[in-house]
Amino acid sequence: MSTEIKVPKLPESVADATLVNWHKKAGDAVARDENLADLETDKVVLEVPAPVAGVLKEIKVAAGTTVTSDQLLAIIEAGAVAAVPAAAKAASPTAKAEPASAAPVTASASASATKSGPAARRAATETATDLSTVTGTGLGGAVTKSDVLAAPAAPATSSAAAAGVAAGARSERRVPMTRLRARIAERLVTAQSTQALLTTFNEVDLLAVQELRARYKDKFEKSNGVKLGFSSFFVRASVEALKRFPLVNAAIDGNDIVYREFYDIGMAVSTDRGLVVPVLRDADTLNFAQIEKAVGDFATRARAGSLTMDDLTGGTFSITNGGVFGSLLSTPIVNAPQSAILGMHKIQERPVAIDGQVVIRPMMYLALTYDHRIIDGKEAVQFLVTIKECLEDPGRLLLGV
Questions:
Q1: Residue ranges of the chain with pLDDT lower than 50?
Q2: Which of 77, 85, 163, 387 has its CA at a distance of 20 to 30 angstroms from the CA of residue 48?
């Protein structure tokens, strides 16, 4: 019985997707739930699993094609057995003893034994790397894109190949942008051309936060099963500031200002495919442990390529942390249609004057980029000052003062 393989239902906000690559070819045996192909949208990579076991009878759409919801991709002959080449049968000493009806062949051992995400598989295809030879460092031993790129290159098989990497050779490669990278580029240019973006700066003394973390980190981790990081402090401080300055949480829609009375905080995460911003929903209702767990989960799933469309949709305000890469100061770009974004930076010990004395403190520069069409400079500065005050005196976060 033939079974049609179609493009999964795409969310309303996603018009189409690109079929990045096939993991099987026509005539191959497939196992139920085995991933047949990767579809890349503007935000995430989706897998196309086989609904039944059998043989991939026909592929209707080539890799690189733009596809839409419910479009026919391929046909599987359910319960069929992959054909064995005549030459292979003749060479096999047991060919004549083989029973007429064998059980359907499932996925290859190397494919099933190697856990990898779409980004890793795509990198393996582009670099002609055998995934079964790569040691995974991801969650549960999964192979990541970084693992593939770090794997030793396969030895050259001909003199022509050796000549291609001769010393002093000058070469270049032209690689199409992924849909995610193209979408990031489009959104950043749109934000800068449609919003009146301005950035204000301040600095925060994180001594109190560091002391609080040092005092309670062991008890916190033991009680909650997660480490107490900086993310929860910045999320809670941002929510407190958003409550005091609701325009920063608002958005422009035509000639209207839409005030959002909920706090969905986007947390920027860097991945091999580009920057993604999963959304921490109803952040005002979450405690420190819940925030830390959610942020950690976002980071893990983002790098494994397993974030869903719902994870990346919406958001009323965003936070990005260039400090993890060593950035001392930057001007982040607003994630439109939001109206503001908070930039965190590297914590650096610097001399500061406190009560007439020069002391060394762990300081961080903060940046708030905002849409000046609806947020005035006074509100932006006061918003950033509120975050500074909450972080320099964390008790404010508990008392709401």
A1: 88, 93-113, 156-163
A2: 85
